[in-house]
Amino acid sequence: MIEVGRLVVKIAGRDAGKKGVIIDVLDDKYILIDGETRRRKVNILHIEPLNQKIDIKKNVSHEDVAKALDELGLKVRITKPKPKTQKPKAKRKTPEQLRVQKEEKKKLRDIFRHKKKEQKSEVKQEATLEEKAGLSEEKKEGAKAEKPVEAKPKEKKTSSKKAERSKE
Amino acid sequence: MPAPRLRSRSLRRIFRKVPGNRVSLQYREKKPKPAKCGNCGAVLKGIPREMPYRMRGIAKTRKRPERPFGGVLCSRCMRQKMIDKARQ
Questions:
Q1: Is A5's pLDDT higher than 60?
Q2: Which residues of A touch B73 (CB under 8 A)?
C-alpha cells in the first residue's frame, strides 16, 4: 500500500485532512509527501493511504507533483520563494577620504570649543552686571569716560563706595 | 464567623500562608469546568481554564490547538474522523 505515487490523507496535526502524494519511502517508519501540505517527512502512522495512485518517479520536483495533482483537481500548496537580498558590503575608505573625514571632525571640535568659550564669557559678564546693578549711575558714567582695563574693577568699587559714604 | 456574603458556596475557599507565618482563609471566584471533547467527553488539553472575561484577553492561538476541530474534538476522535472520511 505504501509506495511512491500513492495518494494519502494526513490525519494528524495541523495538516490533518489534507491530501498528498508519496514521493519517497525513507524507511519502514517514515515517508516523504508533497501536495496540499508542504513537502515533509511524515510518520506512516500519521497518514491514511487512499485507493488512487499516480505515475510519478521517486523524488520528483514540486512542479511535477503540482502538474500531476492538478489533473486530479487537487490544489497544491504554493509557497512564495523569499526574494534574495544581499547586504550592502561596507567599502573601505581611501586615505584621501579618511583625511577629509578627520578635517571635518576637527572643524566640528573647533566650533564646539568656540561656543563653550563664548558661553563662559557671557556668564562672567552677567555676573559683573548683577554686581553693578546695585551701584549708582555716576560710577557707570565714570567708567565709560575712563574706559578701564579689566584688572581695575575692584578699585572702582571701593571708590564708588567711598563716594556714597561721603554723600551720606 | 465569616461575613454573611461569604457564607454561601458561590466562592471557593483557599488557604494561603500569609506573612507572619499564619494560614488564612481566602475567597476566590470559581473557575469554569474544563473543556471536553464533543465526541468522547475526554478533557481537552491545551485549553486554558479561565473565566470568559479572562479568555477574551488571551490570544486565539493560545486558546486551542492549531489543527482541524482543535478545541472541539480530542486528537484521537479527530484522527478517527479523518480516517472514516478517507475510507468512504
A1: yes
A2: none
The DSSP 8-state label assigned to residue A57 in this structure reads -
Nearest Cβ partner for B67 among A9, A14, A50: A14
Q: What is the pLDDT of residue B88?
A: 84
Q: Identify any residues that bridge with B16 across adjacent strands, giving them in sequence order.
A: B24
Query: What topology is assigned to A6-72 in CATH?
Result: SH3 type barrels. (2.30.30)
Looking at the complex, report in whole angstroms how far the Cα of residue B73 sits from the nearest Cα belonging to chain A.
Answer: 13
Q: Can you give the pLDDT of all 88 residues of chain B as single tens digits? A: 889 999 999 999 999 999 999 999 999 999 999 999 999 999 999 999 999 999 999 999 999 999 999 999 999 999 999 999 998 8
- Alpha-carbon gap, residue B30 to B44, rounded angstroms: 19
Q: List chain A residues with CB under 8 Å of B76.
A: none
In terms of DSSP H, where are the helices of chain A?
Answer: 62-72, 95-133, 137-146, 153-167
At A136 the three-state DSSP class reads coil
Are A9 and B86 inside 8 Å of each other by CB? yes
- Chain A interface includes B84 (CB < 8 A): no
pLDDT at position B52 is 93
pLDDT, residue B78, reads 95
Q: Does the distance separating the beta carbons of B87 and A11 come in below 8 Å?
A: no
Chain B nearest-CA distance from A22, in A, is 16
